[in-house]
Amino acid sequence: MSIWLTIVACGLITFAIRLSFIAVEGKLTIPRWFRALLPFVPVATLTALIVPDLLMPQGALWLSWSNPRLVAGVAAIGIAAATRSVLWTLIGGFAILALSSGINS
Amino acid sequence: MSNPPLQEFWAGVKALLPMLIGVMPFGAIYGVLALTTGLHPAAALAMSIILFAGSAQFLFCQLLGAGAPTPVIVAEIGLLNLRHALYSATLAPHTTHLPKRWKWALAYLLTDEAFAAISRHPIDDDTHPHRHWFYLGAGLALWSGWQLSTAAGVLLGARLPTDWPLDFALPLTFIAIVVPLIRTRALLAAALVAGGMALLTASLPFKLGLLLAALTGMAAGWRVAGMAR
Questions:
Q1: Which member of A91, A103, B74, B200 has the lowest number of beta carbons within 10 Å of its beta carbon?
Q2: Residue B85 CB contacts under 8 Å (≥ 6 apart), including other chains
């Protein structure tokens, strides 16, 4: 039972965040400092998710070119910067992951 | 010069399709992970509908597996999804003319991937009175892909090949979303500090380091932007 409550609570809070500005636009003034902070939220949150995936694939820091996820991740950053394409980033990232896993195994 | 709604809708679907290549493997992995965490299949599927947020659903399972209490789970999911406030703020000026049911539907469908697809498409409401159909198309395309793939994960479960590094699809998708966003030194500072802090705090219980890293990254970006002003 409590698991369903937790799921619903998480869903409500997420929906409230997604609706927030869409619902109040034109009706409420949003503090300037909050608006100034907003652009940094996705970059900071998503990077905090990405970096441990690349550098700690097994839970401990693995700062080495023999770490296939680090190599593929760095390459993917380059591909994303050059192409701005999700498709090419995925194809290139997985291809290099496969290559560098093969070399190191 | 106004496109009929259906044309906009399909343009939205098309803009989202490349994202599905990254999202659907991750959805299947979520389905498998949810079951191994001990979630009932019905709860695993319901979460995809109720929460509809890939990284948050993953975090939910990890926290549940670690025995985190409900308030911790809800608070962490809330903070992790705080970034959607930016998407909401960006979309808001283009939705003021819409009725409430449209606003609620678009808010429900607002995700990293849908927002990335939308923001790469020039937003110009004066020439596109049907632009909300584009948002709906992108949102529904992702929604369908997510529901299908999580259902596949739940149904196939252990029969999915575990030696394929499918979980790498999420960091790759996020890299493709984040890298084009980093256009100023302040945004770069936010990314570097968040990434560094995520490594330093990785050993904290209940993934609290993730939140600490995100918060310090935001503060760093805000600070650097303030110095430039």
A1: A103
A2: A17, A20, A21, A38, A41
Taking CB atoms and an 8 Å limit, are B84 and A13 in contact across chains? no
Chain B positions touching A90 (Cβ under 8 A) are 18, 21-22, 169, 172-173, 176
Angle between helices B84-91 and A2-24 (to 10 degrees): 30
For chain B, the structural domain boundaries read 5-166, 182-229
What domain range includes position A67?
A: 43-105
| Count of the separate structural domains present in chain A | 2
Q: What is the pLDDT along chain A (105 residues), one digit of tens a residue?
A: 689 999 999 999 999 999 999 999 888 888 888 888 889 999 999 999 999 999 998 889 999 999 999 999 999 999 999 999 888 999 999 999 999 988 766
Model ipTM value: 0.91
